[in-house]
Amino acid sequence: xxxxxxxxxxRSSSAxxxxxxxxxxxxxxxxxxxxxxxxxxxxxxxTARALARELETSYPTIQRTLDLMRYGFKMPIKWDxxxxxxxxxxxxxxxxxxPLAPEEALAVALANQTxxxxxGTPLARALNGALQKFSTVATGNLSVSRASMVTTPAALLxxxxxxxxxxxxxxxxxxxxxxxxxxKPESEAAEWRTIHPLHLFWPDHGWVVVLRDAExxxxxxxxxxxxxxxxxxxxxxxxxxxxxxADFLRGNLGAFTGDEAYEVRIKLxxxxxxxxRERPWxxxxxxxxxxxGEIEITxxxxxxxxxxxxxx
Length: 312
Fold this sequence. Notes:
Number of helices: 10
Mean pLDDT: 76
Largest sheet: 6 strands, mixed
Order of helices and strands: HEHHEEHHEHHEEEEEHEHEEH
């Protein structure tokens, strides 16, 4: 006995208000969502067939992905019957499905470091494939210090970090200008600042964003814990061609970044010396044994602010 499968019916995203049956939210689907979101931000309007060609997939798959975005993630995608194309109405500068929770962002950073140790193995090829699908959503402008990763539980993050991390991270990814209400540590009142976020990093006890102050035209580092409010301006910015996060942060011991070069020598003994051997203070640390239980460490830093706090 032979049986014949009925062709699968697909429902176009241009249909009425009733939500169709949605596809599963797989890694491949999330990859397509991120790519479509990026295309809509860059081009304004797109057609399903053009997206199918660009993503090298079928027209029904693109239609199902658009359904997932419209009905599953409530993204403001509108169909224009005159041009037979899709666009955001109103604009949607951020990808709603990717506000990374702090522990998720930590996991991404840890995964990138861990997978590097498996280079050349069959498992590495599979992991690299998965990371490539995820890369449009969560890669690039984020770094974490190994020492702090193992000592600071994500549960200790403040409410402001949990609220703003996803939006700031995505702004670094899509080069979206932000307005933030920011309070300096020495100020009683917060002030509005227009910023161009470039990189997120975790130096010690919280998330910090490297940014360019759009009004003062200077590089700055802001702690997310000090951001009281955040909004997008709707404008995009150009990433400085000469900005390199690794170079910018090379001399940082904490969140503060300076523009000088300091060689700092510190003598440690007892428990402090043992800890410095096991967990170096900085990537540049050189250790010299002075006497039993006593060492001298040498650090190459760009400022003295955080090292003074660490000592005192």
